Each structure stands twice: as C-alpha cells, then as structure tokens.
Amino acid sequence: MSRDALLVMDVQQAIVERFAGVESAVGYLPRLRSTIEAARAADVPVIYVVVGFRAGHPEVSGRNKTFSALVQSGAFAEGTAGTAVHPEVAPQPGDIVVTKKRVSAFAGSDLDMVLRANQVGGLVLTGIATSGVVLSTVRQAADLDFRLTVLADGCLDADAEVHRVLVEKVFPRQAEVVGSEEWVKGL
Questions:
Q1: CATH number for the domain that contains residue 168
Q2: H-type alpha helices, the chain
Q3: Under 8 Å CB-to-CB from 4, ≥6 apart: which residues?
Q4: Is 133 within 8 Å of 49 (Cβ atoms)?
Q5: What is the tens place of the pLDDT at every residue in 59-79?
Q6: Residues ≥6 apart with Cβ < 8 Å to 23
Q7: Which residues contact 83 (CB under 8 A, 6 or more apart)?
Q8: What's the confidence (pLDDT) of residue 68?
C-alpha cells in the first residue's frame, strides 16, 4: 500500500532571506509550519529537500548557468548557515532531510530511494521557488509515476504572475492543485 509524503523544498535560510521583500511571502512560513504540523499529526511523512554542495563546489560545472555563480560566493556549501532549513519550519525528529545537487528534488539526491523504501506513492509539494524546485520536481515526479498534489499557497515565487500561470495552467496537467487548508482538512 502506498502513502503520501509532504515535501518541503528549498525552504533554507539563504533562500528565505532572498524572498523577504516579496509581497506573497507575507504569512508564508507560518502557513507552511501549520501544514507541516498537520502532516505530522496525521502521520504523513515530512521530507525536507535542501540544496547543498561539498566545500569548493566540485559538483558544479562552469557550464551550469544556474549554479556556477555559487562557486565564487561559496553559497550553499554544506554546513554553512545559509543551507540550514529556516528555523520556523525546521525538521523534527522523525523527519527526513534529503540533499540535492540541482534544481529538481530528485537530481543528485537519494530522494527516489527514500520514497520507495517508505512506500510513498504520492507527493504533496511545497517550496521556494514555484518556477524552480517545484516546477522541476513536478515534471520529474510525474515521469516517475508519483501521484502529485501541489499546495498553491505552500509555494512561493518572486514573480506573482509566473506563480499564477504555473499553479493555474501548468501544474493541473500533472497534479492536483489545492490550498493548504483544503489539503489539511482532507487528512
């Protein structure tokens, strides 16, 4: 029998700080915390996905436009403050933390192995940014035949219009898209 898991993706100190001035970020962390707490109370596994690299970023090619700028700054080196999950939604005992090396939660991580070992067949996606980790993970998870739910208000993007188009037009082709409250009521 398969079950669902809640994925909390890229809600790390350095990423949350970059979204501090975004209007849609108001209330995001408290809403996400409530969703996480409800999942735990319903025995839905909570899996955190974070981006992290070894010191010196040997995993990053200079050809990778997205990540190559991180090499110079040293950003997201494992163990640095910016890579930690934001304390307002920090993992608790029993939660799982998976480290990825690219945009998708599956790329360069053992997420697929963790999900299959825990008999997870459905994913409930949250994270920052809607146009980054959420989009990439929806696409890859759909190709891997997972049942998908995207919590529209559990995702955050710097561009409100991009977020709207993704949750209203793109994601519904591969996932159920609902609000956090609606999902929590169904637990």
A1: 3.40.50.850
A2: 13-18, 28-41, 65-73, 111-117, 135-143, 160-165, 180-185
A3: 44, 120, 121, 122, 123, 124, 147, 149
A4: yes
A5: 898 899 888 887 778 889 888
A6: 160
A7: 12, 13, 14, 50, 51, 52, 76, 77
A8: 84
Residue 119 DSSP one-character state: T
**Total tally of structural domains belonging to the chain:** 1
Query: End-to-end alpha-carbon separation of the chain, Å?
Result: 17
Q: Residue 29 corresponds to which amino acid?
A: L
| CB atoms closer than 10 angstroms to residue 180 | 19
Q: Which amino acid is at 45?
A: P
Domain span at 150: 3-185
Q: Collect the ranges in the chain with pLDDT lower than 70.
A: 1
Decide: helix, strand or coil at residue 84: coil
pLDDT for 133: 98
Can you give the length of the chain in residues?
Answer: 187
**Six-digit token string for 63:** 């050809």
Q: What is the pLDDT of residue 1?
A: 65
Q: What does the alpha-carbon distance between residue 49 and residue 144 come to, in Å, rounded to a whole number?
A: 17
What pTM was estimated for this model as a whole?
A: 0.96
